[in-house]
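Summary for the lay section of the report: proteins are chains of building blocks that fold into shapes. Here we show the chain for Large ribosomal subunit protein uL2 and then a coded description of the shape we predicted for it.
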Amino acid sequence: MVKKIKEAEEQIKRKLATKPVKSLREILVKTGGRDFSGQVSVRHIGGRQKRFYRIIDFKRDKFNIEGSVAAIEYDPNRNVKVALINYVDGEKRYIIAPEGLEIGDKIISAEKAEIKAGNALPLKNIPIGVQVNCIELVPGKGAILARTAGSYATVSAKEGSFAHLRLPSGELRKLVSENIATVGQLSNIDWKNRSLGKAGRTRHIGVRPTVRGVAMSPRDHPHGGGEGRSGIGMSSPKSPTGKKTLGKKTRKSKYSDKFILERRKK
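The coded shape description reads as follows.
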């Protein structure tokens, strides 16, 4: 039994040991959370190990050309594995790897592709109840929804030129049925159960320490000040910039509200 476990672990390591294809990578520039003027525009960002960005095919627009999975690779920029696809015409592309996709498997993007993990096709041709990932919001613009580890949306219904999808957040939304989606649930389902183990690993990821507002001075945070330990001293918590939080709605009225059939679960 122990021997089988070791063999399985070595097999996984061999799968993930493949180096990224040079033509499909580019250096990821560090910002440190600062904008063009040098001011901190996003807090808690800094440091980070140098890494390459993998160019992912989110559009899946290589239609009716079959490809085979050459490798399943680790991507330092996302929590889900990526798959290197070798197409029969010689081109190589990266896609987000769904659960169950193995080296040697065949995938395709087509109007009426087989319903199996990794294949991409329009929502109108995907049966009700099928799990999908990497879903477009606007036809031809590339995948926007359900792109993280273990996530998927479920095709709930079809109505005219629209398909109803239950999204990972619990929201029920209408989408144009011409949008491309990939069949299956995304890989690395147990990612949320990982333990970073030490503070240094967080810094390697690029996350700087977060300090409580009540531990700051009044000039640095609205919750700051006071003698010793104290409450926030106000009826509603505030952000570092002084705006109310905790239940404050941040979504403004948008044209896309009409496509939301049921709001996300609280």
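Put simply, here is one thing we learned. The CA atoms of residues 43 and 96 lie 28 Å apart.
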